[in-house]
Amino acid sequence: MPGTVHPRERLEVLCIGGANVDGDFRLAAAAIAGTSNPATARTSFGGVARNVAEDLARLGRRTGLVSRVGDDAAGRGLLDHAAGLGIDVRHALVAAGATTSQYLAIHDPDGELVIGVNAMALIDGIAASDLAGMPYDETDWVFADTNLSAGALGEIVGRRRSSGAFRLAIDAVAIPKASRLPAALDGIDLLFANAGEAAAILGRAAPSTPEGGAGLARGLLDRGAGAASVSLGRLGAVVADAGGVWHVGVAPTRLASTSGTGDARIAGTLHALLDGAPLEQAAVSGSLAAALTAESDSAIDAGLGPTRFAAESARLEAVTVRRIEA
What we know:
Elements: E1 11-16, E2 20-27, E3 39-46, H1 48-58, E4 63-66, E5 68-70, H2 73-84, E6 93-95, E7 102-107, E8 113-119, H3 121-124, E9 139-145, H4 150-162, E10 167-171, H5 175-178, E11 190-194, H6 195-202, H7 210-222, E12 228-231, E13 237-241, E14 244-248, H8 261-274, H9 279-294, H10 306-311, H11 313-318, E15 321-325
Parallel strand pairs: 1-4, 1-9, 2-7, 5-6, 9-10, 10-11, 11-12
Antiparallel strand pairs: 2-3, 7-8, 12-13, 13-14, 14-15
């Protein structure tokens, strides 16, 4: 496998889930259905788990990536790119004769997502048995996304339930894929979801206020999650754990694109949790990472790193934190 590997060095986060080639189109004007629309385009590597792994690596964290790619040029390029960032890809799965997964996002001229489409059957096909031998006991956190099948997620959650060697964070990814989570969320130390995904998990209506988000976050805890982060878009996020429920605002940003901002929020949050920050303060770091990524035309802010992150004290201080429930 390409890249430099440090087999005796414990990982801080092992990311398991989606890895694909992203096509990102920016419309020149408002979308007109049923016809061709002029746009600019760019191609990059993406996928929730892969994006989180890259953001964490850029923040200086020892990170591993487990996904499945094809044995094509795109798959080889994806793994080479990750390894070049210091990400451990020794446990990545390569499918002979397969095409690496693809995701296409179309944004309006202001950078807001109009529609996203994906061809990710390769990731859907990762089975529980494919993940049985992963180095769960050699990492502080495992991060997984619901691009994985219910069976694969069940394998990871089951490992966490039977082991105290690592903590588990999961991202719900999308409303249709949130149903892949187990009905009982115990074993998940931190569940990330947006309001629509959290509402779908709980069988409720999606809220439009922080107080409504607090109800969802508390509901996820009642279902068994150790902690929850419910994103409310421009309203920030609500986070909850045994110590209470907080509304965390957004960091100031100059929006270029929303691509990758949710993944950056996850990475920034985990980055701070690894340093021992309480959940509500870790969510502030997540807000900053999302803001920095929003200023990039790419799903990854190539300038993200410990020095720049630490230098943004003014933006960190601008993020409001309000306790909603004790």
